[in-house]
Amino acid sequence: MARPNDEVEELLQEYADLLAITGGDAFKVRSYEKAARAIGGYHEDVSTLDGKALRAIPGVGKSIADKIVEYFATGSVQAVEEVRATMPAGVRELIAIPTLGPKKAAVLHDDLGITSVDQLVEAIEAERLRGLKGFGPRTEENILHGVRLLRQAGGRVLLNVALDVADAVIAELTAVTGCERCVYAGSLRRFRETIGDVDILAAAKDSEPLMRAFRSMSFVDEVIAAGEKKTSVRTTKGLQVDLRVVPLDAWGAALQYFTGSQAHNVRTRVMAVQAGLKLSEYGIFDAETGALIVSKTEEEVYHRLGLPWIPPPLREDRGEIEAALRGELPELVTEADLRGDLHTHTDLTDGVASLEDMVHAAAQRGLDYYAITDHAPDMPMQRMSDEKVLAQRRRVRELDGTVHGLRLLHGTELNIGPDGDVDWPEDFLRGFDIRVASIHSHFTQDRATMTRRLVRACENPCVDILGHPTARLIGRRLPVDVDLAEVFRACARTGTAMEINSAPDRLDLRDEDILLARRYGVMFAINSDAHAEPHLDLVRYGVGTAQRGWLTAADVINTWPLRRLRTFLAHKPTR
DNA sequence: GCCGTTTTCGGCCCGACTGTTTTCAGTCG
Fold first, then answer.
1. How long is the CA A461 to C1' B7 vector, in angstroms?
2. I need a labelling partner for A279 at 20 to 30 A (CA). Which of A49, A68, A129, A225 fits?
3. Within window 55-114 on A, which residues have Cβ closer than 7 Å to strand B?
4. A259-282 confidence digits (pLDDT tens)
5. Residues 6+ apart with CB under 8 A from A32
6. pTM of the entire structure?
7. Which DSSP letter does residue A249 get?
8. What are the pLDDT digits (tens) for A210-227?
């Protein structure tokens, strides 16, 4: 189901985790983690590569290349199986809890026999951790808080995970004889940031061949319900997938119904009732006679209710019905509108691909311009220096315009320190074409301090974009506590753009914050924050999030022609 | 386990923060 590279990345990461828990050499653990990332971000399908080609991937040597070859030849890796046999899978789940790492997980397993998150919570409640070396009251509190955070996602998965599953299901069902149409609907079609279950809609005269194919897919773990119109399964990863099959004639009504949201559907059904109609997943009917009026396309359904077609990301009952009635629906920004990417990394810092490879991949995407924004020296782990970044700039200048005409901007991702300062003095900062500034630490400052910190960053004449502004990681870290309205005011006043970071575990700003920011006249940048070539495609999630925030192309600075962008960057009012 | 204008061994991303400690281990970015 997943890309072969993703499978290998997951396998190597699992091996690294298990090695860490079982007390393996820390450098060896890191080697596997690094190789996992490199393979996940590698542009070629690793299942098609031989040992020699695999060893050409940075971070992959003989041992790991052999394991990858073994994996594709036999379906498993002996060394991984051996360590799996000694450590239950549930122990690895423990380290997904924030503040709980491999060492503590090992103690919990070895001393208390804990092999799952549930058992850990029980053990804390039964006070069985008391007296355990290294576990005090704060540790217990932090673990319980971490578990709550994990569960807050409520079994929901990230957008990219759900989309991979949906794409795989659709590819298989589309190939079944008799399948006339097959798409995903539900919250996935609306681009919600997390997905509870994947809704697939198909059209066919006879549903049984589709249902049979669906039930027998390789990743189905359990069939929850199996009927003529609807089948529900749970995948091996625990994600529920529902398949609905309708006659082609009912396509539009069914798609409208199964796309939701529920709140939006309530509104449309009430509108139908008020017009003497009845709206269901089978069509719009005359309430009196029961006669079918329309059902074939979503456009017809909306038009019969006196509405233009409403883009799915808007269907949340957040004013879209009223805007539609007034004829004021926004012309939403699309992926095709994006001319550039303004936040990306290379292997000079924590990316896994070279400058040249990233530039070629960006050119392949058909972008007009592309900014390289590696980390600055205030994040010591990145080992950035003036010399390194200036050497990179020279190389960027050489490459500028030479790869399919792609124009290059030399930038940096600055670190916003606890008091709002950033790396490098102003004269050095002015040497960059573009500067993103982001929070990477001190996430727990109080609201007033955090607000001052971000406002100060905006007021810095050399900060062009606030990167992942709330620093949240979905399911793992809450957004920082900050008065966003105050920050948006500062952004609007200083001409600082807000990033919509497209990484599926960030999506930061999130949709509701975008809706608010827009009211303050803030400008936005939809960026990939790519650390590898395939990440450049992640902007689809950033665009979906921007659409949920009602943004048009005019609101997004990287839809502008380069000239206009450069003017924007050069004319920060505080500069 | 990987890697090499310090090259086949001996380094390896390094500093800050937190909580449990009484000098430091674990986690995180």
1. 46
2. A225
3. 55, 58-65, 79, 95, 98-105
4. 988 888 878 988 888 888 889 888
5. A12, A13, A15, A16, A19, A64
6. 0.85
7. G
8. 999 999 998 888 788 888
